Each structure stands twice: as C-alpha cells, then as structure tokens.
C-alpha cells in the first residue's frame, strides 16, 4: 500500500484573478477554469466512493487499505476546498458553473450502484486526472505565462493526483471488480468527461466574449491537437487503460514526486 501525505497549500486565492490569467490566453484560461468547476463536486464523489468501497471490504482487507484510503480522502478534501475558493473567484467574474449540476445528478445514479462499480467510476476518472497531471507537469507550454500562484495550484494538484493515482484502481480490484466492467465504466466516464469539459469551456468563452475570435480557436488547436497537445500526447495513455495488464503505477510519477520535494515549503505536510 502507498503512504499518502496530506498537505496544506499556501496560496493567495483572495486577490482577484485576471480574466485571462493563463498568459493572456482565453482558451487555456477557459479550459482550466472549466476543469476547476468540476472538482468540488467530483472530489466529493471520489471521497464517498472510496469510503463505501472500504466499508464493503472484508475486515482483513479493510485494514490493508485503511491508511491509504484515509490519505486519499485527506488529499481530495484539500483539493475540494482549494477549488471551492478558486471557483468563488470565477463566480465573481460572472462565470456560471453548469458542469457541477450534471455531476450532482449523476451522483444520484451512482447511489444505486454497488460500491465496487462506484469505485470503478472513480478509478476511471482518476486515470483521466493522472493523464492531465502528467502533461501539466511535463509540458511547460500548457501553463506558459500563467500567474505564478495559479501555476503553483495546478502543479500541486497534479503532483498529488499522480501520488494517489492507483488507490481507487487497487480498491476496485480488491472488491472483485472485473475487467469487462472496468473497461465499460471507463468508456462511459470518458464520454462524459470530454463532453462536459468541452461544454463548460465553450460556455466560459461565450461569457467572456472570446468564443468566436480566431486567436481562441488557434490556441484551442495548439493546446489540444498540436505537437505537444493534450489529445495528441494523452491518447496513448488513455488507450492503455483498456489493456488487460494495465496498472496506474506503470506510469512515471517521478515528475510529481520531484515537484513535491522541490516545493515542500509551498505545500507542507499536514500529516502522513
């Protein structure tokens, strides 16, 4: 089992954000803002999923996972609080979070699932966040020119996502989750994640008045489909989840570990 450290991020989220805080780039700003809008409700779904999953394990197995799940919950709860503050800034700019109500509606459907499949949904979504985390930490262009505090926020979140990327996956398998449902849940999660992110990003750009500017679409192409784009660089990792021998730990988490060591004063441990 993995030892997960809960940290407190020292960041100023009281000073108002620039409208285009990501290097003056409307598209990249709108995309990251959209992702942040999903996190408070989404992180709570993950927390509740692993709690139920842990409770459903036989007692011997429960003891094996207890510490790691507690660390996972602590990290995700911290992410939720930080993004609530971030999102309050976005609401102050007049942006409307249309993604969160869809998460809450699906949450009511998840309540009907066995704990195992709810954990499977969490494992699938955690793979998406791990793909994004790997690219944010490995490709400086994605946050080029960003306000330093926002760059730090996204790098911290990414580093911790890589740190706990296998928790829900291992719990799913311990609960007896099979490969057919693991792949099926991943495809469903992938559809919702992509379409929800796109809809919220477009909504943010519409409100911002930059949706139809040529520069917005040029940035969208570079960010998503360029040589270092999210889609182009992330597809192989996405597809890898569908392999029968896949495990999240096969990915390289060194870039996240290095960031956490080098920025220990910015994100000091609360507890391990």
Task: Describe the fold and architecture.
With 272 residues, the chain is mainly alpha-helical. It has one domain: Ribonucleotide Reductase, subunit A, CATH 1.10.620. 69% of the residues lie in helices and 2% in strands. It is built from 10 helices and 2 strands. A two-stranded antiparallel ribbon has the order 1-2. α1 runs parallel beside α3 (99-110) and α4 (115-138) runs antiparallel to α9. The longest helix has 34 residues, at 59-92. The model has no long low-confidence stretch (mean pLDDT 96).
Detail the topology: elements first, then pairings:
Elements: E1 6-7, H1 26-56, H2 59-92, H3 99-110, H4 115-138, H5 148-163, H6 167-174, H7 179-208, H8 214-225, H9 230-240, H10 254-262, E2 269-271
Antiparallel strand pairs: 1-2
Global morphology: globular
Total DSSP helices: 10
Beta-strand content estimate: under 5%
Q: Mind describing the biggest β-sheet? A: 2 strands, antiparallel
Q: Can you tell me the CATH topology?
A: Ribonucleotide Reductase, subunit A
Spatial arrangement of strands, main beta sheet: 1-2
Span from first to last CA?
13 Å
- Low-pLDDT segments: none
Order of helices and strands: EHHHHHHHHHHE
Give the CATH architecture.
Orthogonal Bundle
Oligomeric state of the chains in view: single chain
**Helix/strand structural class:** mainly alpha
Mean pLDDT: 96
For the record, the count of structural domains works out to 1
CATH top level is Mainly Alpha
Number of extended strands? 2
Rg for CA atoms: 18 Å
Q: Give helix % range.
A: 55-70%
